[in-house]
Amino acid sequence: MANTYADYVGSDGLGTSGNEFPITFDYIKTSHVAVEINQGPAGGVNVWERKELGPTADYTVVTSPEKRVVLNSTPNSLWRIRVLRDSDASIGIVDFANGSVLTETELDNAYNHNRYLAEEAEEGASGGGFTKNPDGQYDADGLRIENLAAPNSDDDAANKQYVDNTDSARKTYVDNAIATEQSARVAGDNDQVSKTGDTMSGALTLPSSDPTNNDHAARKGYVDSQIAAAVLTGTPSGQIDTANIADGAVTNAKLESGAVTSDKISTTDTNFNVQSDGSIGMGTDTPTSQLHVEGTTQKMYAQIGDSDNNSFSSPEVVLALNGDSLASQVGPGLGFYAGVSCAQLFGVRASGGAGGDFFIKTLTYDAVSETSSMVEYFRINENGKVGINTDSPTSTLHVNGSLSKSSGSFKIKHPLKPETHELVHSFVEAPQADNIYRGKVNLQNGTAKVNIDTSVGMTEGTFAALNREIQVFTSNESDWDAVKGNVEGNILTINCQNPASTATVSWLVIGERQDDHMYDTEWTDENGKVIVEPLAT
């Protein structure tokens, strides 16, 4: 950051009118705070204009709640605005007198005045001149440097005349070199090529002998004969490194003429072969389907269409790596499978021919055992149930772990007008992981006890193991007698102010979860409390 100025554009303005700009430097007097504006970026003249300080002039200076320059009108958003310190060098801040008592403030002002003048001289903050920016480089503020002498050394700045003269001298040198080259050629011989990059308008005649090296030029007749030999026999008598086949060069008519026939393609080569029935084998000379692919060191099995080797229904595609074939998993579908060498697995698995599951697995590394294994994280089973982090979902969406959402609701057919409307209620949210239990009980002799586990169908002791920080709310539904409740363990006790009361009381118990999951999950702290304001990701 500069010590003596701050640069802004009009759109940086603060305040309700966008006309306030922070003062980022120290100063002694308000009159030392100056403002310069350049309207060039908005189509105005590219010059810096010093503005006048004063409530009826161009700007004022305020110091509360923070130091700012306030322009008397809102600037154009593209204007360049510089707020700078311009300490007055002609008038001393402190006039020392013999025998006077010097205060800290007077000494500081005298010192700072000299320091500020030195900083302003170094940075040259006034617009339209050389400014030393925060990187230590000088900035001409988009203006020309005029009356610049010719340079003497490589590090000197160059003026336009020097650059123009240098370019002219180089052009003359190049023109002379070209003239010398042209004069060395045979006069009037437009077909002559004398150096790399020359062109010629005539034909280039080559010797009748065939080329013997790959980098030799070849006659048209030699190239044509090699292409013809390759098409007819599949074995050219010479090497052709590169050939361009024009659009339409290979047509049905040319193929039907016998250029490419089944006898030209091997039926026994294990790398690639075509059988008489049209089946293609890659890595095998006995394809059992229309496309049969196998490997050796990296076993691969691919099949498109029906086959006698499995009970897939047509059409199907099966792909397997590392010798593990999806054909063993009976049922129709599209299967993609990879062994532990792959990072992800997508697949459709059939079970007993009754249906199929779609699942995703990822390769997981255990640093303790130093072993890798495929772990399933997503599944859609044959009944349409979706499981996340579980391979046996028991509901439409089964998540084994934590779930975060931006919002949620239930949406059902309206119970009174299902043909025309739906009914939506939002989920209830809270900054704590609370459990809610409620019910009604009739008092006997002004009191009642409720086993919360029994009332909601839980195993004895579950409520106490699951909850902490218990709160009880009670309401007398029969009369105006006061009632209150408290919980010990899993027993809710309700007492009435009237010891003979038989009133019906509604009760509500809220407890915060304290089970192991709340301590293990990533959205709670070490005390099992919800992290309400996590860092953004």
Report on the architecture of this protein.
A hairpin with a 4-residue loop joins strand 17 (356-366) and strand 18. The protein has 537 residues and is of the alpha+beta class. Mean pLDDT is 77; it is low at 297-301, 304-317 and 321-345. The radius of gyration is 45 Å and the shape is flat. The protein folds into four domains: 5-139, no CATH class; 218-260, no CATH class; 273-399, no CATH class; 434-520. Helix content is 15%, strand content 27%. The strands form eight sheets. A six-stranded mixed sheet has the order 10-11-12-13-14-15, with no helix packed on it. It has seven helices and 28 strands.
Task: Write a concise keyword list for the protein shown above.
5-stranded mixed sheet; 4 domains; 15% helix; 7 helices; flat; alpha+beta; single chain; 537 residues; 6-stranded mixed sheet
Summarize the helices and strands and which ones pair or pack.
Layout: E1 5-9, E2 20-22, E3 33-38, E4 49-50, E5 59-62, E6 68-71, E7 80-85, H1 104-123, E8 131-132, E9 138-139, H2 160-184, H3 220-233, H4 252-259, E10 273-274, E11 280-282, E12 291-293, E13 300-304, E14 317-321, E15 334-336, E16 344-350, E17 356-366, E18 371-380, E19 386-388, E20 397-399, E21 409-413, E22 422-426, E23 434-442, E24 447-451, H5 452-456, H6 462-466, E25 467-476, E26 483-488, E27 491-496, E28 504-513, H7 516-520
Parallel strand pairs: 11-12, 14-15, 19-20
Antiparallel strand pairs: 1-7, 2-6, 3-4, 3-7, 5-6, 8-9, 10-11, 12-13, 13-14, 16-17, 17-18, 18-19, 21-22, 23-28, 24-27, 25-28, 26-27
